[in-house]
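Researcher: Quick test of sequence recovery. Tokens follow.
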């Protein structure tokens, strides 16, 4: 029983930290500022659903997919780190400006941003994917595997609720507070990006030096 509880707590804390819905919120607010309430809800729902499906898919078949295509987690960390760094730089300099869209473009726009950058790589990034693969490997029985999938769903659902209420949080903080929040989150995202790049490059460089 203690094993299941410890595994559950570890899964919840690690996934919530790596997904970081509060860090996704400024980008979601900015990119959906021109959408109505229903489209914002649809965007948040699709982004979290895509993230859940992606994480479960990688948890179940991650290692097989990586081996088939010859992809390594380290390479994924480097690419994800670069994407995070560029986004964090824009957030730090408050350059994520409101996107002007026409009524005809709303549907395609929400489909585009819900998949990327919201679902991938902001919600379902290299860290979360790596965590899903590694924790599935440590799950020794069906019960633990079921708990892991349940935790992924729980965290994605919590992210959905946070995104839905992001406007209220924005109103509570005000424009100045949100600008400060965006810059702080941008700095955090950039720090995370550096960590991903370093942790990805280190084993690659070591392997190259051995050759």
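Model:
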């Amino acid at each position: 029983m203690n094993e299941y509880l410890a595994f559950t707590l570890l899964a919840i804390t690690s996934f919530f930290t790596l997904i970081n819905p509060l860090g996704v919120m400024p980008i979601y607010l900015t990119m959906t500022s021109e959408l109505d309430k229903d489209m914002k809800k649809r965007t948040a729902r699709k982004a979290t659903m895509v993230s859940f499906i992606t994480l479960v898919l990688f948890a179940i078949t991650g290692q097989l997919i990586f081996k088939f295509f010859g992809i390594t987690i380290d390479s994924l960390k480097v690419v994800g780190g670069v994407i995070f760094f560029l986004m964090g730089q824009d957030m730090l300099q408050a350059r994520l400006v409101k996107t002007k869209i026409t009524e005809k473009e709303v549907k395609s726009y929400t489909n585009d941003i819900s998949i990327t950058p919201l679902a991938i790589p902001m919600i379902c990034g290299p860290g979360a994917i790596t965590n899903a693969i590694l924790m599935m490997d440590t799950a020794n029985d069906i019960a633990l595997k079921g708990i892991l999938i349940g935790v992924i769903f729980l965290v994605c659902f919590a992210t959905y609720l946070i995104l839905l209420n992001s406007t209220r949080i924005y109103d509570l903080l005000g424009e100045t507070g949100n600008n400060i929040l965006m810059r702080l989150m941008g700095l955090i995202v950039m720090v995370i990006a550096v960590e991903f790049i370093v942790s990805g490059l280190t084993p690659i460089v070591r392997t190259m030096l051995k050759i």
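The CA atoms of residues 80 and 121 lie 7 Å apart.
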